[in-house]
Amino acid sequence: LAGQRQGIIPLWASEIEKAPMSITKRHFPEMEHLGDITKLNGGAIPPVHIISFGSPCQNLSQIGNRSGLAGVKSSLFYEAVRIIQEMRDATGGKFPIIALWENVMGAFSSSNRLDFRAVLSSLSNSEVSMPDSGRWANAGMVRGDGPDLSWRLLDAQYWARPRLARRQRVFVVVDFGGRR
């Protein structure tokens, strides 16, 4: 919705749950619903400049079962990474230009803080080391031979009127062109 307000046109979504589908159909009636992400081929769907995704948070959440990215639901993160790579392969590395991942603050700490490292490593296509402190900062970046990425913890209560309840979320932005 925020992207649309800035002129970004959503083309498609991958969702199987009825409630989120009804919300997106209401806000974006022209958007195509592609269904189950595990059945999609990123090289066969329409390429896009920006892919935004938020893998299910139940296994990462501090109030969830904390099975992390190995959990049945949160492991769908890797399906989105696969879709992105398939699209980049099919377009000669042209699309997507940007990927945006959003999730709960618990992503910083699940699986003894190794899940967030796996997210950063998967999205940057490089081996990201753990911070010397053993804890992830609320903001940071990875710059290397592959795509550049940055992350930041934001709180929804500061981004809406009327003010929303406190909802801290991690956002990771991947720039496949680098240096943006």
Keywords:
alpha/beta; 19% strand; two-stranded parallel sheet; five-stranded mixed beta sheet; 180 residues
Strand and helix layout:
Blueprint: H1 2-5, E1 12-13, H2 18-27, E2 32-33, E3 50-53, H3 76-90, E4 98-104, H4 114-124, E5 139-142, E6 148-155, E7 168-175
Parallel strand pairs: 1-2, 3-4
Antiparallel strand pairs: 4-7, 5-6, 6-7
Distance between the termini: 23 Å
**Sheet with most strands:** 5 strands, mixed
Number of strands: 7
Assembly state? single chain
Structural class: alpha/beta
Mean pLDDT: 90
Quick recap:
The chain has 180 residues and is of the alpha/beta class.
Description of the molecule:
The chain has 180 residues and is of the alpha/beta class. Helices cover 22% and strands 19% of the residues. The chain is built from 4 helices and 7 strands. The protein has helices spanning 2-5, 18-27, 76-90, 114-124; strands at 12-13, 32-33, 50-53, 98-104, 139-142, 148-155, 168-175. Strands 3-4-7-6-5 form a 5-stranded mixed beta sheet, covered by helices on one side. A two-stranded parallel sheet has the order 1-2. Helix 2 (18-27) links the parallel strand 1 (12-13) and strand 2. The longest helix has 15 residues, at 76-90. It is globular.
